[in-house]
Design goal:
Elements: E1 9-15, H1 21-26, H2 34-41, E2 43-47, H3 56-68, E3 73-79, E4 82-83, H4 102-112, E5 113-119, H5 121-125, E6 138-139, E7 143-144, E8 147-148, E9 165-167, H6 174-185, H7 201-204, H8 215-219, E10 286-287, E11 290-291, H9 300-312, H10 316-321
Parallel strand pairs: 1-2, 1-3, 3-5, 5-9
Antiparallel strand pairs: 4-6, 7-8, 10-11
Length: about 350
C-alpha cells in the first residue's frame, strides 16, 4: 500500500469466538512494546477491546462510520472464530449491546478493509472453537479448517488485492503480528510473502524443530518416555515440531519461552485442524512402530535406518539424561593427550 509521509494506517481489532489468548500474548510484545511499534509504523488504533475506552454505543457508532465510508479502515484484525450458528443465523453471538450477529459486522467490515487479517488459528481456520461437533458452527474468515471458504468465501480479496492474511497460532507470537503489520505498513506484503494457507512466510518458512533445545536428543533418538523426561518428545510424547511451520524456538516468547522449552510437546497449533488429531496430544501415533509425525521431508525408510544407527551411537550422557528430569551426566572434557 502506497503511503504519504504524513499518513496514518487505521487499525480496528475485534474479538469474536475465542479465548482472548492472542491479545494476551500480543500485550507482551517487547523490543519495542506494542504501542511503540504502532507509533513507529504509523498505525492509528481505532479500537481494541483491551486498549480502548469507548463504551458499547461509541463502538457501534465507530463501526457504522467505517462501514458507511466516513472513516477509512486500513487494517481489520479479527481475533477468534466466526460464529455462524444456530443454523447459519449467527445469532449465537451478537455484538454486545446490539441485536445484530457479530458475523454480519465482521462481513461488512471485511468488505471495506484495505487488509483483512485473521489473528490466531481460530480466526484463520476455526481453531479450538470449531472442535468436537462444532455446535456453534464456528469457522475462520476465509477457511474452515484446511478447506477454503469460511465466512468470506474462497475468492475474497480485500481492497488492496490480498486474501485474508492468516497469522495462525494458538496463541500467536506477538512478533508474528507486529512483523506482519510492519510489512504491510512498508508496502512489503504481497502474495509471494504468504504460504499455501495464506500465513506470513516470515515465520512459517521455519519449523518449530529449528533451534529446539532438545535437538541433540533428537539426533541420537534419545527419547523421553514420560512428561518430565529431558529427552526428545517426538518418538513417544506426541511432539510435532518437525512438521509445525513456525519459528517458536528461534524467537521464543519473552525471549526464553516456548512449548518445548516448557517441557510440553508441540501440537502444531499453526496448522488447520490441529485441534482434532484423533489421538492424545501427548501420545505419538505410530504405524508398525514408526512415528506418523516424521519430518515432512524424511522418507520412512531413512528414518528406520538413521534411527537404528543413531541409537547405537548414543552417548551415555544422552541415554541417561533422556529419561531423567534433570541432568545426571554432564558433558565430559576430551583428554587432549589421547
Amino acid at each position: 500500500m502506497a503511503q504519504h509521509r504524513d499518513s496514518k494506517l487505521n487499525l480496528l481489532w475485534l474479538q469474536s469466538g475465542g479465548c482472548g489468548g492472542c491479545t494476551l500474548s500480543l500485550l507482551g510484545a517487547e523490543s519495542p512494546d506494542l504501542l511503540t511499534t504502532f507509533d513507529s509504523a504509523g498505525i492509528r488504533l481505532l479500537w481494541h477491546p483491551s486498549l480502548s475506552e469507548q463504551s458499547a454505543s461509541g463502538l457501534h457508532e465507530l463501526l457504522q462510520q467505517i462501514i458507511n465510508g466516513d472513516i477509512r479502515l486500513d487494517l481489520f484484525c479479527l481475533e477468534g472464530s466466526v460464529i455462524q450458528g444456530p443454523d447459519g443465523s449467527g445469532l449465537f453471538h451478537r455484538l454486545s449491546g446490539s441485536d445484530r450477529p457479530m458475523r454480519d459486522w465482521i462481513h461488512d467490515l471485511s468488505k471495506v478493509a484495505h487488509y483483512s487479517i485473521a489473528i490466531g488459528s481460530c480466526a484463520a481456520f476455526g481453531g479450538i472453537t470449531s472442535g468436537g461437533g462444532n455446535p456453534s458452527e464456528a469457522c475462520g474468515l476465509q477457511f474452515e479448517n484446511s478447506v477454503p471458504g469460511g465466512l468470506l468465501g474462497e475468492s475474497f480479496n480485500a481492497i488492496e488485492g490480498l486474501p485474508v492474511i492468516n497469522i495462525a497460532g494458538c496463541p500467536v507470537h506477538p512478533n508474528w503480528v507486529t512483523e506482519s503489520l510492519l510489512q504491510i505498513a512498508h508496502g512489503d506484503m504481497n502474495r509471494q510473502e504468504l504460504d499455501e494457507f495464506n500465513r506470513p512466510r516470515s515465520y512459517t518458512d521455519h519449523l518449530v524443530h529449528h533451534a529446539c533445545p532438545r535437538n541433540e536428543f533428537y539426533e541420537f533418538k534419545a527419547s523421553a518416555a514420560k512428561p518430565s523426561d529431558l529427552g526428545c518428545l517426538m518418538e513417544n510424547m506426541g511432539c510435532l515440531g518437525t512438521q509445525a511451520h513456525a519459528d517458536c524456538n528461534i524467537r521464543p516468547w519473552n525471549g526464553e519461552g516456548s512449548c518445548i522449552r516448557g517441557g510440553y510437546a508441540c501440537i502444531n497449533c499453526t496448522q488447520p485442524g490441529f485441534q482434532e488429531p484423533d489421538y492424545s496430544f501427548t501420545t505419538t501415533q505410530k504405524i508398525a512402530g514408526i512415528p506418523v509425525g516424521l519430518p515432512t521431508d524424511m522418507p520412512k525408510a531413512w528414518f528406520i535406518a538413521l534411527a537404528s544407527l543413531s541409537k547405537a551411537a548414543t552417548p551415555k550422557r544422552l541415554r541417561e539424561n533422556a529419561h531423567a528430569d534433570h541432568i545426571l551426566v554432564t558433558p565430559g572434557n576430551r583428554d587432549k593427550d589421547k
